[in-house]
Write a structure and sequence with these properties.
By secondary structure, this protein is an alpha+beta fold. The chain is built from 3 helices and 12 strands. The N and C termini lie far apart (40 Å).
């Protein structure tokens, strides 16, 4: 079945990338919401995290991505050996990440694990779908930070155990509490309750590929 074409054109992002940490091997940066991680095929989607970084760091390569609407911390390699070593850490599952999000409504449980397999949904690109037949295993831990009275919503800390496309967004919806501001995985109210996707990558923890030091990078949540 043929996929729908990607007709998305990103509006201009006026917010800057913030440099959180830098050495000769890698960067930790803070990505603003509303900026692509990688430039799109459409020339109108040239602006991206990678496009901006290579202006000052020509050898920079992204090790992972954040969705267009997601803000927060990203790890960037500055040479091929470091890229290869950090990629092995991602593949081995030894790099841990956390995210802060605000969800629609009040969660009943203070913590839990969402275990739902995720697959591509070509007829409805760019949507993903929950599919037990073809989906890849996807696990998300969550814990409630606070329940907000008005409008009824819940601030949560997510710790994804896997790293599937749109994992936190689709898992939140399947939990019955979509992330506020999400345009893809939503209910009748959730998208209009925020002017942006309320999902922020707050931390990333990894072994420095040269020093072997355990590094924990942090980015304060802006909402």
């Amino acid at each position: 079945m043929q996929s729908k074409p990607d007709i998305f054109i990103a509006p201009p992002c006026l917010d800057e990338i913030t440099l959180l940490f830098q050495d000769e091997h890698l960067l930790l940066i803070n990505k603003p919401s509303g900026l692509l991680s990688l430039s799109g095929k459409n020339p109108l989607n040239k602006d991206s995290v990678h496009f901006r970084l290579v202006q000052d760091f020509p050898t920079a390569t992204l090790l992972h991505r954040l969705d267009f609407g997601t803000s927060g911390i990203m790890l960037v390699a500055l040479n091929k050996p470091v890229n290869a070593q950090l990629t092995k850490q991602f593949q081995a599952g030894t790099i841990s990440k956390t995210y802060c999000a605000i969800l629609h409504g009040h969660l009943a449980q203070d913590s839990g694990i969402i275990d739902l397999p995720i697959a591509k949904d070509p007829p409805n690109f760019p949507l993903q779908k929950i599919c037990y037949a073809t989906g890849k295993n996807a696990l998300t831990q969550y814990s409630v930070i606070e329940r907000i009275a008005s409008p009824p919503s819940t601030r949560v800390l997510f710790t994804p155990i896997s790293g599937r496309t749109h994992q936190l967004r689709i898992h939140s919806r399947e939990l019955g509490h979509p992330i506020l501001g999400c345009d893809l995985y939503k209910n009748a109210e959730s998208q209009t309750m925020a002017t942006r996707l309320l999902l922020h990558a707050t931390s990333i923890c990894f072994e420095h590929p040269i020093t072997d030091e355990r590094i924990e990078g942090m980015s304060d949540c802006p909402f």
